[in-house]
Amino acid sequence: MVQGRRASLPAGLLDELAAICGDEAVRTSADELDRHGHDESYHATAAPDAVVYPSSTEHVAGVVRACGAAGVAMVPFGAGSSLEGHVAALGGGVCIDTTRLNRILRVGVEDLDVTVQAGVTRLQLEQRLREDGVFFPVDPGADATLGGMVATGASGTTAVRYGTMRENVLSLTVVLPDGEVMRTRSRARKSSAGYDLTHLFIGSEGTLGVICEATLRVQPLPEAASAAVCSFPSVHEAVECVIATIQSGIPVARIELLDEVQMDATMRRHPLGYRVAPTLLLDFHGSAAGVAEQAERVREIAAEHGCPDFVWASGEDERRRLWRARHEAYEAGLALRPGSRGFTTDVCVPISRLADCIVETQADVAASGLLATVVGHVGDGNFHVCMLIDPAQPQELERARALNGALVRRALAMGGTCTGEHGVGSGKARYLELEFDPPALALMRTLKRAVDPDGLFNPGKLTEAVDAAQ
């Protein structure tokens, strides 16, 4: 018998879920519900009525059938590291936590692929693959679950060379809203058979099904890797260096921008001795000779754009410390204003418009009086703004929302998108109608109704959130 049952759920549902997954796998404590009702963003908590921890695809299918028969909403949950309110249970219901689906099922070094359950985390996979001399290249920074990364179409620091989740997922096993288990395609590297169901679920944010397994591309570990740091007089010159580097065809593995505010925060948290100025962090992968050649070409380009120094991260230990510092940029930024919360947003624009978009956004931030940092995976035109707001000052939240809206509209006017990697959730939904024309949104709604006719999967997100925002 499950203790602490919630009266808002149909009688007998919790006992049915416990019979499927085990008594201990069904939770209804206040702390558990609260933890599963929010992500890492500023969005308000919306707690589910229960949390269930399935341990297999069969468990997930049973949970979906039981909740579907009872007409109860379901919200898939990974690590809770998303940033646009993706996991908030806006309609209550049952949260399906996938973290016990945590087995690496197969490593295919010969085929350069791997099959994992949805709850496997990025670092867990990295540690397992390293012993076989391969790695999974999508690195969003957070130790997210692979299922969550698929569901949000995640990207990260290495996308400029290796691509995003959309380029690195071969096949998925998904539980559909009727409880049926579906494989989206085979493991073959390419296929011309039928609709591209795999990409339909990448970025679907839990609105079409529960991702239970994923077959992913992996890459050989490079023979050599090296990092470098170069600072610039202004963000504009730093971005112009990025554009010239990309247009030169240099295959950099990472090319990250930190503005002077973020660089100040980062050096306070990680005193590595680099200058506080608009800065590019670069990583080079390949043979020893290839890495040296790439770095020399970038050094020359950087000098042409006003870089006074091109500093090598001396040795592998310093290289790892450098990228750890980059991954902890969010925490470093928050420390600039103790007690603040981060209002984080992102956009992506054609790289030719990137400098203008960032510089104009910085001017808006300065005019607002808010403190904000800018970081970016600028090799593909994607950057993030984190505004530090006082939770006790509602007017600061309103100013941050206004800045977010101005940024998104600027990016769209420049031929970009409202989100390069954070996803839509409920936070960015109002901008979909600005980015897509009515026939495109209508087709999205048609797909949602066809796959999930009762609207039980992560209700209030994506196109449903567009309707709610109007």
Percent range for β-strand residues: 15-25%
**Mean model confidence by pLDDT:** 94
The gross shape turns out to be globular
Number of helices: 18
Quick one: biggest sheet?
Answer: 7 strands, antiparallel
Number of strands: 18
**Structural class of the secondary elements?**
alpha+beta
CATH architecture of the largest domain: 2-Layer Sandwich
Rounded to an integer, what's the Rg over CA atoms? Answer: 22 Å
Q: Summed up, what is this model?
A:
The protein has 470 residues and is an alpha+beta fold. Helices cover 38% and strands 20% of the residues.
Give a structural overview:
- By secondary structure, this protein is of the alpha+beta class.
- It folds into five domains: 13-97, Uridine Diphospho-n-acetylenolpyruvylglucosamine Reductase, domain 2 (2-Layer Sandwich); 104-220, Uridine Diphospho-n-acetylenolpyruvylglucosamine Reductase, domain 3; 224-330, 2-Layer Sandwich (Alpha-Beta Plaits); 335-413, Alpha-Beta Plaits (2-Layer Sandwich); 429-469.
- The protein is 38% helix and 20% strand.
- It has 18 helices and 18 strands.
- It has helices at 13-21, 30-35, 57-70, 122-130, 146-152, 159-162, 165-168, 197-201, 235-247, 260-269, 288-304, 315-327, 329-334, 354-368, 394-413, 432-435, 438-451, 463-469; strands at residues 26-27, 50-52, 74-77, 94-97, 104-108, 113-117, 134-135, 169-175, 181-183, 210-217, 219-220, 224-231, 254-258, 279-286, 310-312, 341-348, 371-377, 382-389.
- It has a seven-stranded antiparallel sheet, with helices on both faces.
- It is globular and about 70 Å long.
- The two termini are 43 Å apart.
- 50% of the residues are buried.
- Mean pLDDT is 94; it is low at 1-7.
